[in-house]
## 1
Amino acid sequence: MYFIVGPSEVLAVTGCGIPDIKLAKKKWIWPGQKFTRVDISPVNYTFEVQAMNAEKLPFILLAVFMIGSRVDCEESMLKYAKLISLHDKLSNHVTKLVQGVIEGETRVLAASMTMEQIFKGTKEFK
């Protein structure tokens, strides 16, 4: 059967004749092969991150991140198809994973800056 996907999707094909995963926008699917439609549209995640700066002053930072795959990089698309496509992008598993990475990196960055550096140099902090 011949399959074509929409503009924000990609086919991830595995099975007979394909050693790992083959990504395509349109593809003949032969007997012995399986395919999954992978949504590659980015998703926004919003978190309130509790951090502490170098002066040991706690603060709450509203963090909004847009997460998606880099469509211009084949290696990035393969990793995205293997890791994220198995789960719903808004599932608890993916949200907790993204939140853990964002909170950890934000806390490390904030711990090395003073409050003045954080709020006056917002471009550097971002």
## 2
Amino acid sequence: MSGKAVIFDVGRVLFHWDLRHLFGQLIADPAELEWFVTHVISPEWHFQHDAGRDLDSMLAERIAEFPGHAPLIHAYRARFNETIPGPVEGMHDLVHDLHQVGVPLYIISNFGAEFWDAFRPTQPIFDLFDDLLISGREKLIKPDPAIYRLALDRFGLTPEQALFIDDVPANIAGAQSVGIAGHVFRDADGARDWLRGFGLP
């Protein structure tokens, strides 16, 4: 074995994620849906929870700003798992293949702590990982180099041992800034090809 460990992102790498998967069930008009996920429950607003902000205060603030949308804002919390419709094609096979040959596996994910606590128990794939670093718990968020340094310390890895797969170029750049090799994820075949370059299956 190569002595390498593989660190994965979760959203849009291991699992599809899009706010429209939930709110498309609740808002029939396509234009209204796009307005809602751009101005009310937007990815940028959602990322505050990923960074460690308390969900109660976020929701209270948003409902005060958009009181007519209170039921939809409550649905964001109650039905968040519906924003995650399923695995990214081929990626769980890749995780299983790496695990099968003893490659250490880790997670660094921008994920809110409350939502992670609801999502994690539904997905046994995470049982295959040696450790998981969740931004909302640490109050550190990619691409801050500090989250990668924390991950290396917690996982017991040197930068040279770590290979990182994430769909956001800025997050890969953050990892590279501390010496971790990174791959900007597009699909499972591309990730496999990149890992083969390091002697992994």
## 3
Amino acid sequence: MIDGPYLVLTVLGVLGTGLTAGAFCAFSTFVMRGLAALPPAQGVAAMNAINTAAVRPAFMFVFLGTSVLTAVIAVVTFVLWPDGAAVELLLGSALFLFGSFGVTAAANVPRNTALLGLEPGTAAADRWPSYVREWTAWNHVRTAASAAATVAYVLALV
């Protein structure tokens, strides 16, 4: 079993990946469905407002802080290689860094940027259904990766 500072890092990893999984899960299960039910111009406006509000200290501290933390856990694990927990710690870190942070940077943020650039009206109406479908599909990946990272970190603690 891991202990000391390593225990603290891992517990914080559980908390951060779990909080992130929960936020992403909310979007996958009901937020995007609610937005998709709106007329396209309203859905685009609401999603743009959400995307703007997301880039605030509260969410960014959790999401980016967890990204940094999982990278630290991975590096410390490679250096110290704790008995019985290294695989779980490395797996949790990889799942979050690639499946959550990486997918956000490569798939969700570019879609958000493109959505922000749409003119209200016809362009929004034409692009909105595919945006919702594609963004949500990638968000499912982020949700599953974050939740799986949480499980991996919990398994490292037992």
## 4
Amino acid sequence: MEQPNLSYIHSMSGGDKLFEEKLINILKDEFPNERKIYYQNYKSNNFKLAAENVHKLKHKISILGLEKSYEIAVAFENNLLEGNTNLGQEFESILISITNYLEKL
């Protein structure tokens, strides 16, 4: 499985370390709450709201350089809109990977 990284953030920042730090802090602040809300909706079988949560989370997936994971998130979002939970395990693995990565930053 691919690993989260800061390559995209570094490329966006143009070497501005303060910008990088602010963006990383936003990710560390917002991600846990968005993940929690996603899990609540998913476990409640509220797949339309869970799809909206995935939509928000996939932007963070992209910012962390996870190209294949982003594609999985797009497909999973579409599946949820159809009431289909296929790719749920794969998406959970992505969330765990990001959680572990952000905790180490």
